[in-house]
Amino acid sequence: MAPRRKPLVLITGASGRIGSKLIERLRAHYRIAAFDIRPAEGVDFYNADISKPESVGEALAALKKDHGTKIAAVVHLAAFYDFTGEDDERYRTINVEGTRHLIDGLGALAVERLVYASTILVHEPGRPGDLITEDTPIAPHWAYPQSKAEAEEIVVKQAGDTPWTILRLAGVYDEEVAVPTLAQQIARVYELDFEAGVYAGDPSAGQSLLHTEDMVEAIAAVIDKRDALPKQQILLIGEPGAASYAELQQRIGMLIHGGESWKPVPLPKPIAKLGACC
């Protein structure tokens, strides 16, 4: 009797840092197909520019030819991100329209679970001490989370009979990288930059974070339990506590330079607004 083939998982954006770690986590139990514009190692790679419908269609046709129509899970990681906060056409062509192209193409395949990697930033920010939940209103404040919220709507409205899970991920970090806001804060303290001593927001505010290993385990759990989950599901994935900006500032300053106090001084709103526009 021929050995049973492992279930197939398709990962978009597979050559990125998160995609690479997810491949390592899944490969023992799944066959992996990778969509990206840069080759991914050790998997069946398909060159797919998610922003172009013809490229996605060609990649899906090749995937179907090689592996058939049944896919255990599609993990959609491919996205554009720029921390400048400025708008960029790639938020629409990759994050929004790219999601549309993928879901349109998946209609010809039997997908057991679509997993979309979104962000906690689609939610309206709360006051310090308030916990964000899946029921917190959707109110993204800048281009990146706005594009992810639009992509979520595409998943909800166009996935059809395909079961889906939307994971709203907190800021991802590990021993090698940090979320951009934290990296900038560390750099300013290290360089003794004037901006390290002031803060334009509420220093008691904080952001939930998520270690890369925990994120990968969460995605793997969704794939493993894909048949037992609700047909449509939205989950926040992040650490339950959040250190405030002031707490991080104090800890970073003590670790790098020593001393007693590294508490940031909050800027008055009129001055903060002036700095933001100049």
Helix fraction, binned, reads 25-40%
Tally of separate helices:
8
User: Architecture of the largest domain, according to CATH?
Assistant: 3-Layer(aba) Sandwich
Tell me about the largest β-sheet: 7 strands, parallel
Q: Please provide the count of β strands.
A: 13
Mean pLDDT: 89
- The CATH topology of the largest domain turns out to be Rossmann fold
Oligomer: single chain
Q: Globular, elongated, flat, extended or rod-shaped: what is the shape?
A: elongated
N/C terminus separation: 71 Å
Strand content: 15-25%
> CATH superfamily of the largest domain, called what?
NAD(P)-binding Rossmann-like Domain
Strand order of the largest sheet: 3-2-1-5-7-8-12
Q: Give the domain tally.
A: 2
Radius of gyration (CA) equals 21 Å
In sequence order, what are the helices and strands, one letter per element? EHEEHEEHEEHEEHEEHEHEH
General description of the model:
The chain folds into two domains: 8-170 and 208-240, Rossmann fold; 174-206 and 243-278, no CATH class. Residues 270-278 have low confidence and may be disordered. It starts with 7 loop residues before the first strand and ends with a helix. The protein has eight helices and 13 strands. Helix 1 links the parallel strand 1 and strand 2 (31-36). It is of the alpha/beta class and 278 residues long. It has a seven-stranded parallel β-sheet, sandwiched between helices. A two-stranded parallel ribbon has the order 4-6. The protein is 37% helix and 18% strand.
